[in-house]
Amino acid sequence: MDQADEPLRRAMARALELAARGPAHGPNPRVGCVLLSADGRTLGEGWHRGAGTSHAEVAALDDARERGHDVHGATAVVTLEPCDHTGRTGPCSQALIAAGVARVAIAVEDPNPVASGGAARLRAAGVDVLTGIAAVAGREVLGHWWHAVERGRPFVTLKLATSLDGRVSAADGSSRWITSQASRQDAHALRAQVDAIAVGSGTVQVDDPALTARDADGALAAHQPLRVVVGRRPVPANGRLRGEGGELVHVPTHDPHEVLAVLHEREVRHLLVEGGPTLAAAFLRAGVVDEVRAYVAPVLLGAGLPAVADLGIASIDGALRLEPSEVRRLGPDVLVISRLGAPHTSHPNGPSDPAHLIRTASEES
Questions:
Q1: pLDDT tens per residue, range 167-189
Q2: Whether residues 143 and 164 fall in one domain
């Protein structure tokens, strides 16, 4: 930060604004780039618009050329380290070198081993490279992509929709609707932002969900996430999951880690777990839940299924403590968004295999 002059700081702030225009979901990161002349004038701007489109650096170079500017000797201010590999597009590091850029300022170094190395290549070509400029803000704009690439698995959001006394259904099994329309609309908006939604095969048998993302009018949203079924039971041939919506992915396992490995291989960056109490508990016991979004309705049931099945916690000392980050009113309901703290593992008083709970539900339901 100390080595960044004021024009560079302003350019990085602008690059972060541009990056935020990028896609909210998908395998590629949000990246913005601003090209500065030696005297601090903006020559070109660009951001990555999604898979298969020009990366931010190339978009900025094209913008500068369209404006009639010579970028030789310019400074490229970019929110993420320029890539150094060939995918659907060529390496941005080489594009910057070929354009004659003299300096590159980077907010965040790329954690992806496949794409990283751009800074080293630029330095080897004689380009002055600065790193760590607004690094915290750079990671924030990368959001779930940063987490997924750094940890090698999707960011996992667990969604709960419960009564005030923590029930997800009444004693007779009915559950529509505990929460309000405002909460359901918010949940659909979330579905439209994630890459995949997961439920257990037991839930599929009982509820026959569609797992689509819909707008306020009930129409299908432009983006439909993958629909993931966890468990060994087959998906019914005439089920709603076979209808309109995102691609259906059946992962015939009881291990949340295997589920995440399959989805990471498919470049899923953000997974929404919407399954019932059994699947929720399994992911929690596996220590792979990063965020909990709890929609709580002012309704009392007194009986029925709890939001989360047995976690193997014998005393209050073993409770999973969450860190609330946001509390929001949705009609009569309240949405509480919380993050789990330090990574946790299965509780020592419970079964060591977190998939135990999924097996129980699949075999008993």
A1: 988 888 777 788 999 999 999 99
A2: no
pLDDT at 364: 30
| Overall domain count for the chain | 2
* Amino acid letter, 211: L
* CB of 41 closer than 8 Å to CB of 57: no
- Residue 1 is assigned to a structural domain of this protein: no
Q: Are 180 and 106 part of one and the same domain? A: no
Q: What is the pTM of this model?
A: 0.86
SS3 content of the chain, % helix, strand, coil (to 5): 30, 20, 50
Any idea what the CATH number is for the domain that residue 50 is in? 3.40.140.10
φ, ψ dihedrals at 312, nearest 5°: 75, 25
Residues 86 and 227 in one domain: no
The CA distance from 202 to 208, in Å, is: 10
The reply to whether 82 and 204 lie within a common domain is no
| Residues tagged active-site | 57
The parent domain of residue 322 ranges over 153-364
Evaluated on CA atoms 232, 233, 234, 235, the torsion sign reads: negative
Structure tokens given for 333 = 């309901």
Distances in Å between the Cα of 286 and the Cα atoms of 4, 81, 153, 196, 211 are: 43, 33, 13, 19, 24
> Quick one: average pLDDT of 279-302?
95
